[in-house]
Amino acid sequence: xxxxxxxxxxxxxxxxxxxxxxxxxxxxxxxxxxxxxxxxxxxxxxxxxxxxxxxxxxxxxxxxxxxxxxxxxxxxxxxxxxxxxxxxxxxxxxxxxxxxxxxxxxxxx
Amino acid sequence: xxxxxxxxxxxxxxxxxxxxxxxxxxxxxxxxxxxxxxxxxxxxxxxxxxxxxxxxxxxxxxxxxxxxxxxxxxxxxxxxxxxxxxxxxxxxxxxxxxxxxxxxxxxxxxxxxxx
Lengths: 109, 115
Description:
The complex is a heterodimer of chains A (109) and B (115).
Chain A lengths: L2 E3 L3 E5 L4 E8 L6 E6 L6 E6 L3 E5 L2 E6 L4 E6 L8 E8 L5 E3 L3 E6 L1
Chain B lengths: L4 E3 L2 E4 L5 E6 L6 E7 L6 E7 L2 E5 L7 E4 L6 E5 L8 E8 L9 E2 L3 E5 L1
Parallel strand pairs in B: 2-11
Antiparallel strand pairs in B: 1-3, 3-8, 4-5, 4-9, 5-6, 7-8, 9-10, 9-11
């Protein structure tokens, strides 16, 4: 079967750095997305990785290792508005998005 | 900035009734999707649509579901006879190309409550 694992919940302090990990076992791989979802709202796009390495975009960076089936999302200089769920999603060989359950990030002052 | 829109934002219906959820994708996008998210659970793929036909569908998308692009702008999801377990947030998304290469942009969702 297809499986995407992320921690259920993480807590971090405003101004700090947090890393959210994602491991996947899917039938094929055509890329990995990170989305942010605030409660009751739609997912919004954060990053896309298809090649190994780090993609940096402002305060957010995403890393991929295809050989390890592993990605992480790194959030720097945390702000209160970063409190949200972070969803890892993998494109499988049929070009379908397979979603993780999401990591709820709680930011404390 | 162009965005995906969905109507209504909330829909309450009685079990067994038909509902139609409406979406207006981003105008130059070619691929359209429906997802659902039961409260507190993960996002689940329902169906993808390209060139006026379904390109992929999940096991959830059974005979009670259908999609249509009735004109050049709207993309609808119809649930023929709603069940209690259909209560969820339904998200429409669109992408310029297929999911293999292009980011999907999500609408704000329709919260469906079946009583």
